[in-house]
Amino acid sequence: MSNLILIIDFGSQYTHLIERNLRELRIDTKVIPSYLPISEILSYNPKGIILSGGPNSVYGVDAPTIDKTLLYGDIPILGICYGMQLITHLLGGEVERGEKREYGPSMLFIDREDPLFSGVSSPQRVWMSHSDLVTRLPEGFISLAHTKETPFAAIKHRDRPIYGVQFHPEVSHTPCGKDLLDNFVHLIAKCESNITIEDFLDRKIKEIREQVGKDTVIGALSGGVDSTVAASIVHRAIGKNLKLVFVDTGLMRIGDREKITYLKDVLGLNIDIIDAEKDFLDVLKGVIDPEEKRKIIGHKFIEIFEDFAKRHKDARWLLQGTIYPDVVESAKVDTSNPQLIKSHHNVGGLPPDMHLNLLEPIRELFKDEVRDVGKALEMPDDILMAHPFPGPGLAIRILGEVSRDKLDILRKVDKIYIEELKEHGEYDRIWQAFSVLLPLRSVGVVGDERAYKFVVALRAVVSRDGMTADWARIPYDLLEEISLRITNEVKEVGRVVYDITPKPPGTIEWE
């Protein structure tokens, strides 16, 4: 791979945003763990290397590192946060604990011109997340930029193509970050943009045909974007050997089951429907912990799929619409220090003794890339632009124990919320919107009488990929109208709140 950027991972949750940005720039990338020997790293013949951030201190015991001879070659290297500190530490500079942790936005002041900042004006808003900082540069290095709290916010070697930035260019909270990464891969590493969605589709269809052969694939179809695109890819690869099944868990929204008939007609897919509401509600009875909910749902799904597979003697594979953010948050990526955020029912929730092989054709894609693949497959926009919906369904949008009564309340609330967003033209600009039923009640007044009813939270975020997100600025008048409709039309709800937490520090879903 002669046009490759290697990303050496040190355990940052942002590592895969680096990869995601480079893929947007149509650059070949590969994430590798930091413990690989230098001989294996060099065997990839990379055009450039990016060292990710990470949760460790470079001077700590057993801190992840690299062979420092890598820093004496001619391969362009960019260290981000921990990566910059590691470069400094290995080459004789000093990294120390700061007086306080710098977390959040800072203003970056560029001190000298450099290809890394080509086309980037000063000052710029950047995102910081570090407790350590560089206090003395290694020999041969110069400072390129600073912030109020960080004297060395960007550095470079005078003679070798080695760079470091203390901030995170890969997150959306650094508006100039993509320009910086673009400059590194194109101006410094001299890469060429050559990746297309059509290339991905051709490669994936060929892989599926070689992997599956004449076996039957059981497809888990929810009607959401991810599972529908995954099913369409596999259907194009193996045709009638794909057997799709929609499991009605009873944890779905109003209209989700009816969407399956639409998919059968529009996409020509053969889909069986299994009624399993009682099965899922029985196993969720008394369960409060969200991680336990996700795992229980994952196990029950697999039980149903394996039973369904017995009707097809050649069934060897289970198709799932797992995407990259699911994998990253479930800490199922081979990294130096993966951190579990939450188990996804189709990743961390799968039982170890599953009798079907997993087929996950879009596992390496982010949500917007999944939509791009769907467009290449000529799928209609009303399918592709639907907001993400979690595999465990409304079970993780009911905080506490799940019951049929609570599900019915939340379904009615969610229907009103989404109807109003679509009616006022807000739905398409929002990445994801949903309602959460809280495990508490609040005092209110209905007419002249005291009321004691449920509280629901409304959540809406804007995002590129779901890895980071900001809360959506829905007009106040519309929020008021939504709140009034909910409290008037859903008699069990007496109070509506709006969640204004970005990701990070929150996740998008509440559980």
Overview of the structural elements:
The protein contains 14 helices and 18 strands. The protein is of the alpha/beta class. The protein has three domains: 185 residues, Class I glutamine amidotransferase (GATase) domain (Rossmann fold); 188 residues, Rossmann fold; 95 residues, GMP Synthetase, Chain A, domain 3, CATH 3.30.300. The strands form three sheets. A nine-stranded mixed β-sheet has the order 2-1-3-4-9-8-7-5-6, sandwiched between helices. It has a five-stranded parallel β-sheet with strand order 12-11-10-13-14, with helices on both faces. Strands 15, 16, 17 and 18 form a four-stranded mixed β-sheet that branches. Strand 15 and strand 16 form a beta hairpin. The protein is globular and about 70 Å long. It starts with a strand and ends in a 13-residue tail after the last strand. About 3% of the residues have low confidence.
User: What spatial order of strands do you see in the largest sheet?
Assistant: 2-1-3-4-9-8-7-5-6
Tell me the name of the CATH class of the largest domain.
Answer: Alpha Beta
Helix count from the secondary structure assignment: 14
Low-confidence stretches: 338-350
CATH architecture tag of the largest domain: 3-Layer(aba) Sandwich
CATH topology name of the largest domain, in short, is Rossmann fold
Beta strands, count: 18
**What is the beta-strand fraction?**
15-25%
Structural class: alpha/beta
Radius of gyration: 25 Å
What average pLDDT do the residues reach?
A: 89
CATH superfamily of the largest domain: HUPs
Tally of structural domains: 3
Proportion of residues in helical segments = 25-40%
Could you state the oligomeric state of the chains shown?
Answer: single chain
Distance between the termini: 40 Å
Largest sheet: 9 strands, mixed
Shape: globular
